[in-house]
UniProtKB/TrEMBL annotation:
Protein name: AEC family transporter
Similarity comment: family membership: Belongs to the auxin efflux carrier (TC 2.A.69) family.
Alphabetically ordered keywords of this record: Cell membrane, Membrane, Transmembrane, Transmembrane helix, Transport
Pfam families: Mem_trans (PF03547)
Keyword flag Oxidoreductase: no
Lineage of the species this protein comes from: Bacteria, Pseudomonadati, Pseudomonadota, Alphaproteobacteria, Hyphomicrobiales
Domain of life: Bacteria
Topology with respect to the bilayer: Multi-pass membrane protein
Localization terms from the record: Cell membrane
């Protein structure tokens, strides 16, 4: 397991680092990165999720057990974050950033690592993880923004944010195609598969380009608070849930992987749109991306070894 995790992590680290280098050197216009992120978020990644779920052999995978493990552990940790808010002494917008840093995850890193570990089966497992987590996490985050963000959302606004999320729509549509036994039309399937494959390298380059380490040191306590929940509490609670539910094998490893991923750069965009503390969110994202380089292999190797005993 140790060698597999490290080998799967190396290309992720290299692509993120290369994205940071390209941005720092000004090799591409600054406007490219926002457009590339938009393309990845609204077209490429949804194509990957839809195609992966619509074509996956889900009958051979523990779909329900995997989804339950992820949803229950996410809800439990989200509740803990809310209950311990008073320990931070931060205002509402800052708390939205801490909350996102505790529960939101980087899809690009997760799918790339799952594919590196388990190949096509890993992509199918990652698609199930996203189908379970994307709606759950987005609903939780939008509700937190509605209560604590400076741009207050109405009930209709909350529902709209969830309903138009491209990852939610793609995941649920893929599941619907799978359940109804619908096939993707000839020619369209390979095109969507190619678009989805492009989301992984481009998404990781965008992650690297979005990193801003100059802000991370300004909010040590909120960064440490969010990272403790993200890298310790979340995978630990997921492991406990997996034991109770009986999740094992590659599905268990993938569940732990997704629950120890760093916060996505899309959290910064959501923070700007919905009245959060965007600079703090940028600091949390940058710090967690670095921490994850050590946390992911340690948590995966440690917890899978413990669960196998």
């Amino acid at each position: 397991m140790t060698a597999e995790v490290l080998l799967a992590l190396i290309p992720v680290v290299l692509l993120i680092g290369f994205g940071t280098l390209l941005r720092q050197r000004g090799f591409l216009d600054d406007g490219f990165w926002s457009q590339a992120e938009r393309l990845s978020y609204y077209v490429l990644l949804p194509s990957l999720f839809f195609h992966g779920l619509a074509t996956a052999q889900l009958d051979a995978l523990p779909v329900v057990d995997l989804a339950l493990t992820l949803i229950l552990s996410t809800l439990a940790v989200a509740g803990l974050v809310v209950m311990t808010r008073t320990l931070l002494s931060v205002d509402g917008p800052a708390f939205t950033s801490v909350f996102q840093g505790s529960v939101r995850f980087n899809n690009y890193v997760g799918v790339t690592l799952a594919a590196g570990l388990f190949g096509a089966k890993g992509i199918a497992l990652a698609a199930i993880c996203n189908a379970a987590l994307v709606p759950t996490v987005n609903i939780l985050c939008v509700l937190i923004f509605a209560k604590h963000g400076s741009a207050k959302l109405t009930g209709i606004g909350v529902l709209k944010q969830i309903a138009v999320n491209p990852l939610v729509v793609a995941s649920l549509s893929g599941i619907a195609f799978q359940m109804l036994g619908l096939g993707i039309p000839p020619g369209l399937g390979p095109a969507m598969r190619t678009l989805g494959a492009a989301s992984l390298p481009l998404g990781l380059l965008c992650v690297g380009a979005a990193l801003n380490f100059s802000t991370a040191q300004q909010w040590l306590k909120p960064v440490a608070f969010a990272s403790t929940f993200k890298f310790l509490a979340m995978p630990a609670v997921a492991a406990i849930a997996a034991i109770l539910i009986g999740l094992k094998g590659p599905a268990l490893t993938t569940a732990l992987l997704f629950q120890v991923l760093p916060t996505a750069s899309s959290a910064y965009i959501l923070s700007r749109q919905l009245g959060g503390d965007a600079p703090l969110m940028a600091g949390i994202t940058a710090a967690q991306t670095v921490i994850a380089l050590v946390a992911i292999p340690l948590v995966l190797i440690g917890l899978t070894t413990w669960l196998a005993l």
